[in-house]
């Protein structure tokens, strides 16, 4: 009897293992720049290297630059490997974000705020829904993002938006439509990356200005990864909704290990969270009640 049961047990374990593998976010892969992305502006400040698998953006006193995805997407998993501007990068912002195209736009932001040499980069995240933002969170990174490439990614489905740095979740934004909070669910978004001057606010609230004697400032991108439902019109239906790995029940919430990683980030590296800013927001935003007490 035991001998007969073993193959069945092994089969169950095999199926479970395969399901777990299918539910894991894939690693970023090198995709030629020209395949998925086009310049947004100042194409002469974009340099393709390594057969187009790597892109360098440069910023000088006259202009920055950026690129965008050819397609628009409604839900999915999107990641980029980025190496930040080294040295004195005060006033410089390196960005990777998703954004819709209308006035009441939805947006999911990674913004890396440069600093004087020797000071840590600040990573600011934000979520806009229905044109409303003001949901900034800021952390210090636990590594030097100028020394090597690191992966920055977004998982976006109907239940939640998760921001990842490498495999570490640094932020979760839950769908709180039942609390009267608009959630990005019906506006396709393009993927953008940009390098620009923001010395009116980016470093110490604008006190540190960009030192143009250090220009050009260069940020490098590779590992362009897109796994989303491509759509072109507002209110487009996603034909694969419920059938993609990022839309499975496993991604309705973080698992235990991911919650522990998020707690580690909050305890050690978080320097600002709009949910706890009672001066700027005396009335706590409704969606903050969905933010687990970890």
Description:
Residues 1-22 form the signal peptide. The active site is at residues 107, 111. The chain is mostly beta strands and 294 residues long. The chain has one domain (25-290): Jelly Rolls (Sandwich). Helices cover 13% and strands 35% of the residues. The chain contains three helices and 15 strands. Strands 1-4-13-6-7-8-9-15 form an eight-stranded antiparallel β-sheet. It has a seven-stranded antiparallel β-sheet with strand order 2-3-14-5-10-11-12. A hairpin with a 4-residue loop joins strand 2 and strand 3 (54-59). 34% of the residues are buried.
Summarize the structure.
By secondary structure, the chain is mostly beta strands.
List its salient traits.
294 residues, Jelly Rolls, eight-stranded antiparallel beta sheet, disordered N terminus, xyloglucan:xyloglucosyl transferase activity
What is the CATH architecture annotation?
Sandwich
Number of helices: 3
Order of helices and strands: HHEEEEEEEEEEEEEEHE
- Alpha-carbon Rg, integer: 20 Å
Secondary-structure topology with pairs:
Blueprint (H helix, E strand, L loop, with lengths): L1 H21 L10 H4 E5 L4 E4 L4 E6 L5 E5 L3 E11 L8 E8 L7 E7 L8 E7 L8 E4 L9 E7 L3 E6 L2 E7 L15 E8 L19 E14 L25 H13 L1 E4 L21
Antiparallel strand pairs: 1-4, 2-3, 3-14, 4-13, 5-10, 5-14, 6-7, 6-13, 7-8, 8-9, 9-15, 10-11, 11-12
């Amino acid at each position: 009897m035991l001998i007969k049961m073993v193959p069945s047990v092994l089969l169950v374990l095999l199926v479970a293992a395969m399901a777990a593998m299918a539910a894991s976010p894939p690693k970023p892969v090198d995709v030629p720049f020209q395949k998925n992305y086009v310049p947004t502006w100042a194409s002469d400040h974009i340099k393709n290297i390594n057969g187009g698998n790597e892109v360098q953006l440069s910023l000088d006193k006259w202009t920055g630059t950026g690129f965008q995805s050819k397609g628009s997407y409604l839900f999915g998993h999107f990641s980029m490997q980025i190496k930040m501007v080294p040295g004195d990068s005060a006033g410089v912002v390196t960005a990777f974000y998703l954004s819709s195209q209308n006035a009441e736009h939805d947006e999911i932001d990674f913004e890396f705020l440069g600093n004087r040499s020797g000071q840590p980069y600040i990573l600011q995240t934000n979520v806009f829904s229905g044109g409303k933002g003001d949901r900034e969170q800021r952390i210090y990174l636990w590594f030097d993002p100028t020394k090597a490439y690191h992966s920055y990614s977004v998982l976006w489905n109907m239940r939640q938006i998760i921001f990842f740095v490498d495999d570490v979740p640094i932020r979760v934004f839950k769908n709180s439509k039942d609390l009267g909070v608009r959630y990005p669910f019906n506006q396709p978004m393009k993927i953008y990356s940009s390098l620009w001057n923001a010395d009116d606010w980016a470093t110490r609230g604008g006190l540190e200005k960009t030192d143009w004697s250090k220009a050009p400032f260069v940020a490098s991108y590779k590992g362009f990864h897109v796994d989303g439902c491509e759509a072109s019109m507002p209110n487009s239906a996603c034909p694969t909704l419920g059938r993609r790995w990022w839309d499975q029940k496993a991604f309705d919430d973080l698992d235990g290990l991911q919650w522990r990683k998020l707690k580690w980030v909050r305890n050690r590296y978080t320097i600002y969270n709009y949910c706890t800013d009672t001066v700027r927001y005396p009335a706590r935003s409704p969606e903050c009640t969905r933010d687990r007490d970890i």
